[in-house]
Amino acid sequence: MEGSAPPAAIETRALRKVYGDKAALDGVDLRVPAGSFFGFLGPNGAGKTTMIRLVASLAPPTSGEIRLFGRPLETDSAEIKRQIGIVPEDSLLFEQLNGAEMLEFAGRMYGLGRAVARRRARELLELFELDGAGRKLIADYSKGMRKRLAMAAALIHRPRLFLLDEPFEGVDAIGARLMKQLLEEQVRAGATIFLTSHVLEVVERLCDRVAVIDRGRLVLEGLVSELAAGSRTLEDVFVEVVGAERRPPALAWLHP
Asked: CATH for 1-38+47-81+197-245?
């Protein structure tokens, strides 16, 4: 019954985004249940980052509708943004701030009082093992440090919805493990995670639901436990649905 369906953290209807003569998203109908760990997959250029930018109000759709927690994004944008934490693929960090200043700024931007923002910034720097670099300019951070700082900035206001675009890229194994544990804790507490990643083994382990997009259109959506059943892995399913089963042409000089 429709009335018994869990509430949607994200719902899009006929969502389109066109750049020039190319549709990055082409009529996407997607429903992400609240409290789910949702993987959004696709080959390079499929439309994953565009989807995150639209849901985060970083870009307007060409047409269609986006609703977050049942509310239309275009009418409640400012209020809804306060409930979102985002880790973009290219971290939106102010390079001339240091880590502590960046986190305090993020907290203040989301409405935290100065003392609370400062305390949480200090605690997050320690949690992510960045306290030694807290006074170092972000311009001098490594890629992995930037990702950890971006994750800390996304956490500081305890959002209901996390939008994560390749959050583990460039992060070492210890940092990635910490980030995964924190995200799993947030889901257990009722938050929703919307994650893109090219590392399908990570998606298969973390996510309960996935959708696959290819050339701007959804081609598959379902429970990970049902899609990756028996001996089939999520990678097997992904390769099959995006039409990448073809073998590359043989190059004689690559073979002994």
From this structure: 3.40.50.300
